Amino acid sequence: MKKYVLFVILLTTISVFAQEKLLVKYQEITFPVMYDMNGKEIVQSLEMKKSLSQPVDYFLTIDGKIGQYYKIEKLDNSQTGFKMVMTGGIWDENREFDFEKNEIHIEYMANNKPYILIDSIPRKNDYQLTRETKKMLGYEVKKAEYKTEKATIVVWYAPSLPARFGPKRYINFPGLVLSVQFYKNGETEPVTEITATSVEFDDKLKPYQLKKGKTINKTELNNMIKEDEIRQKEELIQYQGVSKD
């Protein structure tokens, strides 16, 4: 009888945890790489890198098997009157993970027009899980690594928090990803770092709604990227031709 009661309590606890909505706040910092007139990379001190970087904040909302990862828009209170606007090019923005349908929806801006990429979620990743652990935000996290010839990505995930979710494309780990560092091989300081700054349970959490845009698949996106690369090369050749004259 005692075993039965214990089982019911445990099952109830798991069900309540599964129904809770989770809000995770992340901060992403990318340290810029600078080059001199000869194309050689300029060696920067850590202080200089930090002074040139601009942190960007994101939210990850988790509700059951669905999660949204989106940028936290901030008001520009600067008095300079200067604002940088990106024109042309192709870049991804916010995204939604649906592990029930095994789909990922990603907002893309291509030549200033919105698109929604719909793709399947890979069932596994190529990261090497290690036994190394540490504490982050009061949770025990474990280390995973992925190495290539040029770079190393280090991921720290919390097995006690909802699995498979994480920032951007860093998903499908046996626990919520709380930290990501992207290193160029041979360097001790990361080029890009994404770190969770808070984890909160909120039953009144409202999910993020993706922007409306034309739906595309991976093949269509790749074709758009190739066309954009050709366009940029043609513009560069035209610019160089004008400069020579």
**Count of discrete alpha- or pi-helical segments spanning 4 or more residues:** 3
**Percentage of residues in DSSP E strands:** 35-45%
Distance between the termini: 92 Å
Say how many strands there are: 12
- The helix-and-strand class reads alpha+beta
| Helix content estimate | 10-25%
Strand order of the largest sheet: 7-8-9-10-11-1-2-3-4-5-6-12
Largest beta sheet, briefly? 12 strands, mixed
Shape: globular
Order of helices and strands: HEHEEEEEEEEEEEH
Kindly report the average pLDDT value.
Answer: 80
Rg measurement, Å: 22 Å
Low-confidence stretches: 1-18, 78-87
Topology:
Blueprint: H1 2-19, E1 22-30, H2 46-52, E2 56-63, E3 66-71, E4 90-98, E5 103-110, E6 113-120, E7 128-136, E8 139-147, E9 151-158, E10 176-184, E11 192-201, E12 214-216, H3 218-244
Parallel strand pairs: 6-12
Antiparallel strand pairs: 1-2, 1-11, 2-3, 3-4, 4-5, 5-6, 7-8, 8-9, 9-10, 10-11
List its traits.
twelve-stranded mixed sheet, globular, alpha+beta
